[in-house]
Automatic annotation (TrEMBL):
Residues of the Helicase ATP-binding domain: 1-127
Xref: PROSITE patterns: DEAH_ATP_HELICASE (PS00690), HELICASE_ATP_BIND_1 (PS51192)
Keywords: Hydrolase
Source organism (scientific name): Phaeodactylum tricornutum
Transmembrane regions listed in the UniProt entry: none
Name of the protein in its database record: Helicase ATP-binding domain-containing protein
UniProt KW Nucleotide-binding keyword: no
Alphabetized Gene3D superfamilies for the sequence: P-loop containing nucleotide triphosphate hydrolases (3.40.50.300)
Domain of life of the source: Eukaryota
Species lineage: Eukaryota, Sar, Stramenopiles, Ochrophyta, Bacillariophyta
PANTHER family noted in UniProt: ATP-DEPENDENT RNA HELICASE, ATP-DEPENDENT RNA HELICASE DHX57-RELATED
Length: 127
């Protein structure tokens, strides 16, 4: 939950791909999205959530143009897919807690599969 997104981001930043790397990490619950973002931000020695590491839940968002790792509820990512079906600007999608088998996670997985088979074969998906 906390380490894999950090490894991906740190590797991108060290490899000078930080400007082109933006990671969405799904969390099934609002509280988890906020607490994990706070934890990862702390582990990355950030002053506060909202700069390099952020979160977005329904009706609340702490992120900026600098944010490269965004923890979201699954519903927020689904809504984003409706608004932008190609997930322009996103390099990685991490689907956390995939074993919980909620309907939103199932719909997200089907949507990501269609995206990978279509226009975004460059998108990295981590389960």
């Amino acid at each position: 939950t906390t380490q894999c997104p950090q490894y991906i981001l740190e590797e991108a930043l060290l490899g000078a791909r930080g400007d082109t790397t933006t990671i969405l990490c799904s969390q099934p619950r609002r509280v988890a999205a906020i607490s994990v973002a706070e934890r990862v931000s702390d582990e990355m020695f950030e002053d506060s959530v909202g700069r390099l590491v952020g979160y977005q839940i329904r009706l609340e968002s702490r992120r900026s143009s600098e944010t490269r790792l965004l923890f979201c509820t699954t519903g927020v990512i689904l809504r984003r897919l409706v608004e932008d079906p190609t997930l322009k600007g996103i390099s990685h999608v991490i689907v956390d807690e995939v074993h919980e088998r909620q309907w939103q996670i199932d719909v997200l997985l089907v949507s990501l599969r269609a995206l990978l088979q279509g226009t975004r074969s460059d998108l990295k998906v981590v389960l």
